[in-house]
């Protein structure tokens, strides 16, 4: 890859994709994953796909995990990951340009399958655009469209299921209760099992009663900027109460690492005893404060006791409280249908309260046992009844064409 192309991969500009319409070798399958969690899920599918379809060329608009799995990375979309209405509006022009450039790429190269991984705000609109242009099978073309990981229609925008049925050829869901959400549509839906309970998946986290306190503020810049300082304040309060256990914060990439370093600059190093590590290095932890994202599920499957911390832009929260209809924010809590992890959101995420949560997790053996039992129950729910892995379904879908 040329140096100028490397530079473009980290640029918000869509010009590189426009050039690839003429220059790129194309691909038999295209993955689109806009967040770090989706990039990780997709990378495992890509690795398996290289085994079952070794002749397939894999292209991706995703992140570095897909690239490491052997995909040709056209654009690093995970670098642009945002969350919340306000943040999306600020980046609207960037996503619009990328959207149309990528649509042209698919129309030019006609991969056998486009795999949309989570990221519904972008991906479902993209599926609809493929249909309207006559590129996808649902629009009369030859490109199959597979959605891996369902949008949270059980929380809000349930009506999207009918638009999905018009534009998608198949949907693979990772939570068993999601199948029933599409019962009144003609969309083929399969529970493919959660990737975190597959035999080949290595959880980067484990429970170690003698280990450090773990902080997981997330993978999106805007969220990390709001959540991490509160976690650090809680850590200060914990140490002030006589608990001098060291702490570790894991980050998904160098962009988030820079945000963490910036936040740490406002605190005294002596008051924290905190080290920053890449997620890939993993850690055994005694207790955790985690955002509500994918890593919170890793915590639950590892049986690490702790609490969920989340803060978003006030306008985003105001809108969400009127639209979202769920009992819990944490993934493990939703699957278990009970609050395994106490959730401290917005104003309720106070440093003293969070310090108390950590102290109880470190000192209360009964509470630690509840997390061990919850982990066992969760693993059973997410793994039971799994159908064929996603890679096999993609091969079958391509062969139908």
Topology, element by element:
Layout: H1 3-9, H2 15-23, E1 29-33, H3 36-52, E2 58-62, H4 64-68, E3 72-76, H5 85-90, H6 92-109, E4 113-117, H7 120-132, E5 144-148, H8 160-167, E6 170-173, E7 189-191, E8 205-207, E9 213-216, H9 221-240, E10 247-251, H10 254-264, E11 274-278, E12 283-285, E13 287-290, H11 294-302, E14 306-310, H12 314-323, H13 331-336, E15 343-345, H14 351-363, H15 365-383, H16 390-400
Parallel strand pairs: 1-2, 1-4, 2-3, 4-5, 5-6, 6-7, 8-12, 9-10, 9-13, 10-11, 13-14, 14-15
Helix pairs in contact: 2-6, 3-16, 6-7, 7-8, 9-10, 9-14
Tell me the helix content: 40-55%
Quickly name the level 1 CATH class of the largest domain. Answer: Alpha Beta
Proper CATH architecture of the largest domain: 3-Layer(aba) Sandwich
Low confidence ranges: 1-12, 82-89
Strand content: 15-25%
Domain count, please report it.
Answer: 2
Structural class: alpha/beta
Biggest β-sheet strands, sense, barrel: 7 strands, parallel
By CATH's scheme, which homologous superfamily of the largest domain applies?
Glycogen Phosphorylase B
Q: Globular, elongated, flat, extended or rod-shaped: what is the shape?
A: globular
Task: Kindly provide the radius of gyration, computed on alpha-carbon positions and rounded to a whole number of angstroms.
Answer: 21 Å
Beta strand count? 15
Question: Separation of termini?
Answer: 33 Å
The helix tally amounts to 16
